[in-house]
Design goal:
single chain; seven-stranded mixed beta sheet; alpha/beta; three-stranded antiparallel beta sheet
């Protein structure tokens, strides 16, 4: 049964025209883009679900805030407004603005990880994995078993496998584990939430062994909404109170504010109360991001970010936001389309391995499905699978735990009709799935290849 669409808790004040292309045009556009969706011009995309990062629609309050932004190089009012918001929402003493989430990782991880150490996470996203490696560390994923079966239901598929975490710490030696990382929601596992219970248990293990516990907070608000809906004892709690409790268990957080804070650019490193850690982060920020009170951002960005942190935890907004995902998920489930079930908070993760079982991992089923979506209806999505994982140090293709095609829904951007177009396109592809071919890479960079690699379709 298709779920009822949750009405938008806002009205539309401005529109941006989008172009509809023909299939013939899209065939040529993909060829020119080397069969890599990142090379497509946005003007040639009808519904753009490549990412939810920085693609949301800011509110009238945020746009008004942009006019109030203080552009002072040092000590601007907008900087202090952001600090106050971080203290109020997360309960953290220190905050360092940066230009986005990967910048937060770039200035924090080298202060935590020494060469040869491990970072253990419920799952690392691609850029997070890269920054662990660039810091000299080795990323280790430790997600719960339920996440590994997309077809089954579980309330908190994003959870850390706490028992395995402790075994790994003892195996590697606590002195060789530089950080324990919890990503909320768990993006690589399908945007799946993490429970307060699991966060608390993970924090206890990290504390037991004297290891810094860090939260990747890109989608902290969506995670809190799932906790309120699904975790016993939290149904009557306010989202703001859930957020504060979750972060009370961590020592620090990194945030791409381009997600749940609904800004087009911005990030934060939050540090609970460790003054030495904060000084180390500041020392990294100045050469890489700019002076500490702007951190690679304009004052107007800081102002919009401080406002967006509050808008992202609004109950009505979150009900609508998750409702969009549930509506799309229910349409696909009724049609028998496999995906990571239940739906995540920010995206639909189609199970390309199940939908395209004839395409092996080294011919990239997740990428093949993403390209087919563009050909079918001008929809841009992306691979979260072996194509994104890349190669091991010996140059051998890594086989991903999942072969997902991610459809990330921008915040406050698309309507029910757009989601219907997406659902219809996926269902049409399902009917001819056996005809879809795999791809091979003909050129790739050494790091984060999926952004710029060149591919060609296979004939077989």
């Amino acid at each position: 049964m298709v779920k009822k669409y949750v009405a938008e808790p806002f009205k539309i004040k401005m529109v941006e025209p989008i172009r509809m292309t023909t299939r013939e045009e899209r065939v040529e556009k993909l060829k020119a883009a080397n069969y890599n969706v990142f090379y497509l011009a946005a003007d040639d995309v009808y519904v753009d679900l490549l990412t939810d990062s920085g693609t949301g629609a800011m509110s009238h309050e945020q746009w008004a805030g942009i006019m109030r932004g203080d552009e002072a190089y040092s000590g601007g009012k907008s900087y202090f407004k952001l600090l106050d918001a971080v203290k109020d929402i997360f309960g953290y003493k220190y905050a360092q603005p940066v230009h986005q989430g990967r910048a937060a990782e770039k200035v924090l991880f080298p202060t935590l990880l020494k060469k040869g150490q491990y970072c253990i996470a419920n799952m690392h996203f691609d850029t997070t994995r890269a920054h662990v490696e660039l810091s000299g560390g080795t990323p280790i994923d430790c997600v719960c078993e339920a996440a590994k079966n997309p077809a089954i239901y579980d309330d908190f598929k994003g959870n850390m496998d706490v028992e395995k975490l402790e075994k790994l710490i003892n195996e590697y030696g606590k002195e060789n584990v530089g950080a324990v990382l919890m990503t909320i929601t768990n993006n690589s596992a399908g945007g799946q939430p993490v429970s307060v219970k699991n966060i608390k248990e993970t924090a206890a293990v990290a504390k037991k062994y004297g290891i810094t516990f860090v939260i990747d907070a890109a989608r902290y608000a969506e995670n809190a909404y799932f906790i309120k809906q699904r975790e016993e004892g939290y149904q009557d709690k306010k989202i703001a109170d859930i957020v504060k409790e979750v972060f009370s268990y961590a020592d620090a957080f990194t945030m791409s504010a381009k997600k749940d804070a609904i800004v087009n650019m911005g990030g934060i490193v939050g540090i609970k109360d460790n003054a030495e850690m904060y000084e180390n982060v500041k020392a990294m920020t100045i050469p890489y991001e700019g002076f500490i009170t702007y951190g690679g951002l304009a004052g107007r960005d800081l102002e919009a970010l401080a406002i967006g942190l509050y808008e992202g935890i609004d109950d009505d907004y979150l009900k609508y936001r998750i409702g969009q995902m549930e509506y799309l998920g229910s349409k696909l489930k009724e049609a028998g389309v496999p995906f990571q079930f239940p739906v995540g908070g920010h995206a639909m993760f189609l199970d390309a391995k199940a939908l395209l079982p004839h395409i092996p991992y080294n011919e990239f089923p997740g990428q093949a499905l993403a390209l087919e979506l563009y050909l079918e209806a001008g929809i841009r999505a992306c691979d979260i699978g072996s194509y994104m994982m890349g190669n091991d140090p010996d140059g051998v293709q890594i086989e991903s735990e999942f072969e997902f095609t991610r459809l990330a829904i921008p915040r406050r951007v698309y309507t029910q009709s757009h989601l219907d177009v997406v659902a219809d396109a996926i269902i049409a592809i399902k009917e001819r799935a056996s005809e879809i071919k795999g791809y091979k890479i003909v050129w790739e960079p050494k790091v984060l290849r999926h952004f710029t690699a060149h591919l060609v379709p296979l004939d077989k």
